[in-house]
Amino acid sequence: MTNVARRIWDVVEPIAANVYFAPEVHAAYHEIGFDPSSRSSGRVHYPDMVAYFTSRGACLGPNVDGHLVASAFGVFKRPMVVAAVADGWRRTDRQTVLAARERGAVASLRRIIGDEPEGLTWATEVLQRMVDAAPGEGRALFSGLLSLGSPGDPMGAFWRAADLVREHRGDSHIAAWAGADLDACEIGVLTDPWRHQPLRSWVRSRGWTEDELDAACNRLRSRGLLDGDELTVAGRALREGIDDATDRMEGRLVAALGSDSQRLFDLLDPWCDLIVADGGYPARVTWPT
Question: First vs last Cα of the chain: how many Å apart?
Answer without folding.
Answer: 17
